[in-house]
Design goal:
Length: 67
């Protein structure tokens, strides 16, 4: 049972995570070697949590004004 657990852990570590910025399909940067949470955004400097939030709010505003 330990082998299957370690196999599933290694599979999840190798999964490619896409950038969370709206509309971006680039892969997120690789996780740091020293550990810590894995990055959620690609290597583009403007793709970060703050700009992603602003982009999502702008999309909501555009969608809501059409009604």
């Amino acid at each position: 049972m330990s082998e299957s657990e370690s196999e599933s852990e290694s599979e999840s570590e190798t999964e490619t995570v896409s950038c969370l910025y709206p509309g971006c399909e680039r892969p997120a940067v690789p996780p740091p070697k020293h550990g810590g949470p894995p990055p959620r955004y690609c290597d583009l400097e403007e793709h970060n949590a703050s700009s992603a939030y602003q982009a999502m709010q702008a999309e909501k505003a555009e969608g809501g004004s059409g009604s």
